[in-house]
């Protein structure tokens, strides 16, 4: 189908050679001589592009532009002007116009602009598909090559890059090929974790950067600098969500370091985040600080002692600094925290935890509206972007960008969109998480899970003498035989965490500094 161009100019007859040129290039051009005529025409049919003269009698080009953007904000508009005046440049930078052309317009410049704005998306899609097809075999060879721990981090970065690039493609076939390749990667990653996870924790194999070593290896060196450090922890923040919002944050701060680290199992706040703040493995926390460890069968929040665990971690490493800890559960408190930035600048370390993403994950399970908004990974990222754009976190980043600070941004674990139910039986004492279970009387097929019958092997607290842990792999989730079909229907397609997958385990940590 020919791309349709609406060309609006009070001297439209003088532009006939240009219109003939575009028609020869297989474009359909509708000429109009006033802004009012253009608005009437747009009501009847939306074109692919509007070429708009800046200086017209009556309704000026800028007036027409404002009305077009009010009614059709996504419609591309190119301003045609006699000079590169400052206000036209400002409109271009502000996103009100897609581009501008200076009279006299050359046919080459006109064609490039029109082609970019009418065919750009299709050309980008074709390029992305061709690029992925060229790299498909290379990715497959890497996945099958027996990657080490750091190799899997790099593979996560590559897969997220392709996920973001291919997500908007109209070609569902290419996307299905990518999803199959990602499933293969997840399967082999789980196999790698099951082989090496115990060795990493007991020291018999060199371990990657993990939850319990994150602050010691990445945060504490930053505290040696003569500037305040803000540690921002976004609960349940996947690596693809980080890459989706990164451009937004980079408007205000530059990303100096962008890494992937390994979250501990189970990939939940109780275990992974407590380990991160304590700088210890869960069983070590229970043994060393029993007053700060709450088991699943005990009353009370499982992460209510994060500030105390952080304080103990700092003391063990001889870091005697003034620090603060804040947990943001709503926008009102988040904005009050932004107002306190001048006060927080007196501390060497300020820790801020944001719980929105975790609340979004649970809301998506319970709310049909949120299910529709975040129906899949692209939708989940989109909701995250919308939240970030209007969040107190972005307001905090803007405030910190004006000061001499260092920001370390990270998370405790990610989540995975579950699809395949795995049957499990257990008594009333079995933990309720859909991605891992611990308890005495667990009944399951061993091939379906990653099991650790002796929790001490992976430094987890033991609740019962005979109780172990089982974890779902990839995108599985546990389902009980009772009301099985209803249970499966309710949870299939939801985002869960606690188990073993690339999306839950391989999570972001970044260091940001002000641009100035």
Shape: globular
Strand order of the largest sheet: 7-18-10-6-9-8
Mean pLDDT, all residues: 89
* Range of helix content: 40-55%
Uncertain stretches:
none
The DSSP helix count reads 20
Task: Characterise the protein shown here.
By secondary structure, the chain is α/β, with parallel strands linked by helices. Helix content is 46%, strand content 18%. The chain contains 20 helices and 18 strands. The strands form five sheets. A six-stranded mixed β-sheet has the order 7-18-10-6-9-8. Strands 2-1-3-4-5 form a five-stranded parallel β-sheet, sandwiched between helices. Helix 5 crosses helix 7 (172-202), helix 6 runs antiparallel to helix 7 and helix 9 runs parallel beside helix 17 (377-389). 37% of the residues are buried. The model has no long low-confidence stretch (mean pLDDT 89).
Quickly list its features.
516 residues; alpha/beta; 6-stranded mixed beta sheet; 5-stranded parallel beta sheet; 46% helix; globular
Give me a quick take on this structure.
With 516 residues, this protein is an alpha/beta fold. The chain has 20 helices and 18 strands.
Please give the structural blueprint.
Blueprint: E1 3-8, H1 16-24, E2 27-32, H2 35-44, E3 49-53, H3 61-71, E4 77-81, H4 86-93, E5 99-102, H5 107-144, H6 149-166, H7 172-202, H8 214-219, E6 229-234, H9 239-249, E7 253-262, H10 269-278, H11 282-288, H12 306-316, E8 323-328, H13 331-339, H14 341-344, E9 349-354, H15 356-366, H16 368-373, H17 377-389, H18 392-401, E10 406-410, E11 416-417, E12 420-423, E13 436-439, E14 450-452, E15 468-471, E16 476-479, H19 484-491, E17 495-496, H20 502-505, E18 506-514
